[in-house]
Amino acid sequence: MTRKESAVDVLIIGAGPAGLVAALWMSKCGINTRLVEQRPYHLRVGGADGIHPRSMEMFESFGIDEEITQVWEPITGWALWCRNAEGALARSARMENPTPVRCRWGPGLLQQGIIERIVKQHILEQSCVQIDYETTPISLVIKEDSLGDPDSHPCVLTLRHDDGAGVSDELVRAKYVIGADGARSWTRKQLGFEMQGTRTRSVWGVTDLVVVSDFPDIRLCSTINSYGEGGLFFLRRERGLIRFYVQLNRADEELPATSITQELIIETLQKLLRPYTLSVKRCEWWSTYTVAHYLSDGMTKYDRIFLVGDAVHNHSPLVGLGMNISMQDSYNLGWKLAGVLKTELNSTILSTYESERRPVAEELIETDRFHLQLFDAVTATGSEPAWMLEREEAMQPSMQGFAVNYLDPLLTAAVGINRRPGALIELGKRFPQLNVANHATGKVYSIQTLLKSEGKFHVVVFAGDLSIPHELNRFNTFGTALKQIENQIMVKFNVIAVHRASKTATELASMAEIFFPVDETTGRDYDRVYCDMETNYEEAGIGEYGAVVLVRPDQYVGWSGELEDVQDLTRYLQPIFETKKQVPYNN
Ligand SMILES: Cc1cc2nc3c(=O)[nH]c(=O)nc-3n(C[C@H](O)[C@H](O)[C@H](O)COP(=O)(O)OP(=O)(O)OC[C@H]3O[C@@H](n4cnc5c(N)ncnc54)[C@H](O)[C@@H]3O)c2cc1C
Ligand SMILES: *[C@@H]1O[C@H](CO)[C@@H](O)[C@H](O)[C@H]1NC(C)=O
Ligand SMILES: CC(=O)N[C@H]1CO[C@H](CO)[C@@H](O)[C@@H]1O
Questions:
Q1: pLDDT-based confidence at 367, cuts 50/70/90?
Q2: What is the average per-residue pLDDT within 561-565?
Q3: Which helix (H) or strand (E) holds 129?
Q4: Ligand 2 center to residue 576 CA distance, Å?
Q5: Per-residue b/e over 464-475, b at no fewer than 16 CB within 10 Å?
């Protein structure tokens, strides 16, 4: 057997949602990457299907939102049904599902396999990422003596390609490895990490069906709690499908996994829906699971090998957060790794992956546990739906993906602009949606759509009223200082300025070069200066004299300050960016 040998910057193991989003970052940043997956390539059926608003924002930043919204089913509302102690089933509430405040997206549903296909196509648009199916790592050795050298390839793996026709092994040396290989993660085992947590007795059936039913809310998302029996919920999906989650036992009953069949799931479903009827026309997929909550006791080894997604956290699919949170793990890690590999960012920032994501994983497991307890409580007591409404209310931000608040001091400055309670822009949180109009064209944008995932930090300058000479002066002084910072760190920012003068009261030509630069290939850049749409400053918590907000490549606010706080900004940036010798730099 001949053995190939190769070297790569990043090796990703597992092409589920987490591995694919990591690979998408690498493709956007031009990083030489291999993605290996044990399965042969075919469209996955079943699995996750919930897409959260924050995940849509991430897709939008990667430019793949439209492909998803063409085929997804938005969640437009939710119906609650209850069977009381007398056995009568009735609708207790029908709620609209409002689009979250300051977000362009509501939640939606699309089969995991289709999302994976869309992401994969985008990855393959760039040639720097190679995807190998039917390929499994069989050994992993870390060369500890070369960990200190940033250019070394300390992770040595043997990959086995087995396409049924033949087996071949390959030796790959990688600078970094991302283990995105799911709940039974091989990578996690190699690193010696343990899953810690508990397994419950709660057993659920999950199935994707095409049905005929006279249940009135069958084309809505509905929850049915049946006193003393159990619960059921279902979600409308693409292609006429419905995803059903059916509770198969009560919390106090034991149900052996081997006794579960597709028929049992469907019978239970029919029983919970009575007196309404349901017949199955087609079953696309079914599965069962016993609810468990586990968290890996480690997420990284030497900041060279990282675990993302289900390899780190296992929980029930009930709250529909697994895919959202798994992709967000990679969204957090990807730009850091790419920045370090491009020698733009100091490798110490890699430690923030675990410090930022572990609390999110812990919260995910708590949310899930809480949710299950409520489900069991409602079944046991037949209690008021007010319970559920309140719970829905309280969990909204975290269910939508907006509760994440990163706190690692290396990436999140301790103090920022005068923080008004309830202000939209908050340190450590994702930059909100705010509408602005392009100064040159008048076209309206949400600032967030301008924060593309390309690996750049974004500097959003709220410039005040530029028709006042003093303010224009402050603005330009800041712009000149920012240009100097760029030259020092040899990295370009995505610069966005939002002023509050009228479009005719100030001219682009009076602005510092960084706000209105010339590009050799695309000409003048008119995409940096915008006019405030009147209310944004106040809502955002920004005073009339403006502010500067530094946004990380993954859209979380890292630093904010006044236009005069250049020194403080430099102090924030210094440990993050690789400090370079001062090379004269012309551009
Ligand atoms: C029934 C069900 C319903 C769910 N519903 C939802 C939902 O509604 N919403 C939601 O957000 N989440 C849901 N989830 C959870 C969701 O599927 C996972 O959280 C998500 O897929 C995790 O992504 P991942 O990339 O971390 O792992 P996975 O999707 O498990 O991907 C891991 C990949 O690695 C591959 N792999 C494994 N080992 C190796 C190896 N040694 N070498 C090479 N490749 C390997 C696997 O083949 C797989 O493709 C559900 C899960 C289930 C089971
Ligand atoms: C990276 O940061 C560490 C710790 O702050 C520092 O000691 C080191 O010099 C930095 N490396 C570079 C190349 O800037
Ligand atoms: C950032 C993101 O989209 N993730 C969300 C997924 O769900 C968890 C669990 O509640 C939230 O905490 C995250 O905000």
A1: confident
A2: 93
A3: strand 129-132
A4: 8
A5: bbbeeeebbebb
**444, two tokens:** 């309206």
Ligand nearest to the CA of 349: 2
Question: What is the identity of the amino acid at 11?
Answer: L
Ligand 1 atom closest to the CA of 51, numbered from 1: 11
Give the number of whichever ligand sits closest to the CA of residue 58: 3
Distance CA 195, CA 192 (A): 10
Containing H/E element for 26? helix 17-29
Cα 527 to Cα 17, 221, 348, 439, 554: the distances in Å are 32, 41, 33, 8, 20
**Which residue's CA is minimally distant from atom 50 of ligand 1?**
48
Q: Which of 533-536's residues contact partners 24+ apart within 8 Å by CB, and which partners?
A: 533/434, 533/435, 533/436, 533/437, 533/444, 536/434, 536/435, 536/436, 536/498
Per-residue pLDDT, 534: 72
pLDDT band with cut points at 50, 70 and 90 for residue 579: low
- Ligand 3 centroid to Cα of residue 52, in Å, is 8
Q: How many Å lie between the centroid of ligand 1 and the Cα of residue 250?
A: 26
192-236 per-position pLDDT tens digit = 999 999 888 888 899 999 999 999 999 888 989 888 888 898 998
Euclidean distance between CA atoms 169 and 5, whole angstroms? 9
Give the residue whose CA is nearest to atom 38 of ligand 1.
181
pLDDT tens, residue by residue, 353-364: 999 999 999 988
Q: Of the residues 12, 172, 306, 323, which should be mutated to test ligand 1's pocket, given the most ligand atoms within 8 Å of the CB?
A: 323
Domain spans of the chain, in order of start = 4-72+106-195+294-375, 435-573
The ligand 1 site (C-beta within 6 Å) comprises: 13-19, 36-39, 47-50, 112, 136-137, 180-182, 186, 206, 287, 309-310, 317, 320-324, 326
pLDDT the model gives residue 366: 82
Residue at 103: amino acid letter:
C
- Cβ atoms of 55 and 112 closer than 8 Å: no
Q: Which DSSP string corresponds to 348-407?
A: GGGGHHHHHHHHHHHHHHHHHHHHHHHHHHHHHH---HHHHHHHHHHHHHHHHT------
Q: Please state the atom number of ligand 1 nearest to the C-alpha of residue 287.
A: 1
468 Cα: distance to centroid of ligand 3 (angstroms): 43
Domain 4-72+106-195+294-375 -> CATH class:
alpha beta
Q: What is the pLDDT of residues 239-276, one digit of tens each?
A: 899 999 998 987 677 888 788 999 999 999 999 999 99
Q: How far is CA 220 from each of CA 74, 82, 135, 319, rounded to the nearest angstrom? A: 10, 16, 40, 17
Q: If you classify domain 435-573 with CATH, what class do you get?
A: alpha beta
Residue type, 311: A
pTM for the predicted model, two decimal places:
0.91
DSSP string, 227-251: TTTEEEEEEE-GGG-EEEEEE-S-T
pLDDT averaged over the chain?
89
State how far Cα 461 lies from the chain centre. Answer: 26
HSE-up of residue 391 (Cα within 13 Å, Cβ side) = 18
